[in-house]
Design a protein that fits this description.
Strand content: 25-35%
Helix content: 10-25%
Strand order of the largest sheet: 1-4-5-6-7
Number of strands: 17
Order of helices and strands: HHHEEEHEEHEEEEHEEEEEEEE
Distance between the termini: 11 Å
Mean pLDDT: 75
Number of helices: 6
Radius of gyration: 20 Å
Structural class: alpha+beta
Largest sheet: 5 strands, mixed
Low-confidence stretches: 1-10, 20-35, 37-123
Length: 368
Amino acid sequence: MSEHPNDEFDELMRRALHSEADRIEPADGLHEIQARVRSQRAPVNRRGWVVTTGAAVVGTAAAIGAFALLNGEDRPAGDSEVAGAPKTTATATGSVESSLPPSAAPSPSATTPSESRPTALPTKSGKLEPKGSGAIPVYWLGRTDGIDTGAGLRLYRTFAQFEGRPTYSALQLMVAGKSSDPDYTSPWIGAQVSEVRLSGALTTVDFAKLPTERLDQGVAQMALQQLVYTVQGASGQTVPIEVTLRGKPVTHLFGVEIKQPLGRAQSLDVQAFIWITTPENGAVVRSPLKVSGVAAAHEAQLNWRITSDDTKRVVDEGVATTQEAYKFTPYSFVVAKLPAGRYTLEVFEVSVADGRQTSTDTKSILVK
């Protein structure tokens, strides 16, 4: 494996994070973090999860309310993703290029057909995106620690290289389950995307095939937000999303009724509270190790730990701070000395209530 090129990506992430962080309103942050602290649970290392029918969801009614699908006019001011799609360059090819390994697929135990309005006429509004190349964001579902809202799952983001139409390419990766981090997965695996059309006021995603699994309502709503965040992040447009099946508007997905078009839920309601953005999972790095990310932290404080995969011993640990408390802002720190070897990097919070580790994100790295 070749060494991961961090420098250009670091600069890209810094510009995107600073730009987007300035647009996020902190009004509800304290309430969200306090609620999170009260509901913390014991952590696990390397999140594994399987979506099943009838999965236990704590506070499902509250989760559904939090993930209310808003139209463009009702979306709260200042609610935006932390970082959107990087700029792309023109190219003649339309293929999706990625060497990312597939993540584990969910295994639902019951199915129900996706339904559409039989009298609706095919929708062909908007234009296809121009082709380009570069990096696109793709959102995934990952299990969180110490959080009861969001059906126990929240959104994480990875970046992938593409050539072709950016939003179409991002959705192709999402439905294929090709996440660079095995902790993350997608209930959209098996769906088939036909095309994406942008009109400026609405983005239409047409599918040739949609998932037929029936999910718990809280998980289903989170899956819809995975689609919304991926489409808006890759396209750079925060307009509502219309989902169609062979040109006809869809009324049910994952066994639950949906309202069209789909709007963006507030990031504090759906996004994981801690992301490690650099290094990426599986990166080959050198010492000193530079770590950066974004988090909404209680009192702006995070903890980190590095454990040797060979000895299972902690080789270094410390604290880091976000730029502001109770809202999504960047953080960074440097690990001065790391001998060659394989390690697990963890960034997490410590509960002020009982001292437990919570909201953990992890990455596996190889130090040369």
